[in-house]
From TrEMBL:
Pfam families according to UniProt: AP_endonuc_2 (PF01261)
Protein name (Swiss-Prot/TrEMBL): Xylose isomerase-like TIM barrel domain-containing protein
UniProt cross-references to SUPFAM superfamilies, sorted A to Z: Xylose isomerase-like
Residue intervals of the Xylose isomerase-like TIM barrel domain: 26-235
Signal peptide annotation: none
Length: 276
């Protein structure tokens, strides 16, 4: 019988890039959520160990937990970025920051091309190799590596994600976040989530729809209660991961980007989790 991992509620800090860590912590407390994924671009920059130490202490002292370090490391690209005129991100600096932050997991990106483009460019294998490499490095520090489930990467389709995790990048410390791909049917979302269950890390929670002519619109989570009940039920039944004691469902990019909207969304999320 598999051990299940409790689902806890939280916030992805980059939802409020305009707020500082103290303000975010206070907002999460007001919302009565439990954990925070701290972003690596603004709130806890890659390599800023002093900031990581400070944010870890502030989070803990507020009675909250760090769910993950939301890095912007792109497998097979970030360490070579300088040669292409971009700022390089070394994974060891990301890992050191995550350890100082007390993060049990690091969110990374499975390359910077969608699966079709990666196939055409012949770059898929490079991404696979780097994901395995960084998963092994992080395992030595007791930190999980989990990819974003996102367009423009090798997790852009259900089939590509399945192939990546179950045929190619085989490592016991490599997992994936999950979020509903915008525009995908509920049935296909559920199929993809169920397929990823053995490798499921955390979830990013939002209610978006694709706008006619391009772009996306954000709606209150209450408008998607039915489908999110299904998604969270599947996630709650997924087996526990090796290094995380909890699996988090974290709000991201709330409608309007306001504190009031976030507090409303948090109430909906808490209700969904309480009903599991």
């Amino acid at each position: 019988m598999s051990v299940r991992t409790p689902l806890v509620s939280g916030l992805v800090s980059i939802t409020f890039r305009n707020l500082n860590p103290t303000e975010i912590i206070e907002l999460v407390q007001r919302a009565e959520l439990e954990v925070i994924e701290w972003g690596g671009d603004v709130h806890v920059p890659h390599g800023d160990l002093a900031r990581a130490r400070d944010v870890r202490a502030r989070t803990r002292d507020a009675g909250l937990a760090v769910a993950a370090y939301g890095s912007y490391y792109r497998a097979a690209y970030s360490e070579q970025a300088q040669a292409e005129g971009h700022d390089a991100i070394e994974f060891m600096r990301v890992l050191e920051t995550a350890v100082m932050l007390g993060a049990p997991a690091i969110r990374v990106w499975a390359g910077r091309q969608g699966s079709a483009d990666a196939e055409a460019a012949g770059t898929r294998s490079r991404v696979v190799e780097d994901l395995v490499r960084i998963a092994e490095l992080a395992a030595g520090a007791g930190v999980q590596v989990a990819t974003e489930f996102h367009g423009g990467t090798l997790t852009d389709t259900n089939e590509s994600a399945r192939r990546l995790f179950f045929e190619e990048a085989i490592h016991p410390n490599l997992y994936s976040y999950w979020q509903p791909p915008v525009g995908m049917s509920e049935a296909d979302c559920l199929a993809g989530l169920r397929a990823m269950a053995p490798k499921l890390s955390h979830l990013h929670v939002f209610q978006w729809s694709r706008r006619e002519g391009g772009g996306t619109d954000a709606y209150p989570l209450s408008e998607g209660v039915g489908r999110w009940q299904e998604f969270l039920s599947v996630a709650a039944a997924a087996p526990a991961t090796a290094l995380t004691k909890q699996r988090a469902a974290m709000l991201e990019f709330v409608p309007g980007g306001t504190a009031e909207s976030f507090l409303r969304e948090a109430r909906t999320l808490r209700g969904l989790l309480a009903a599991l």
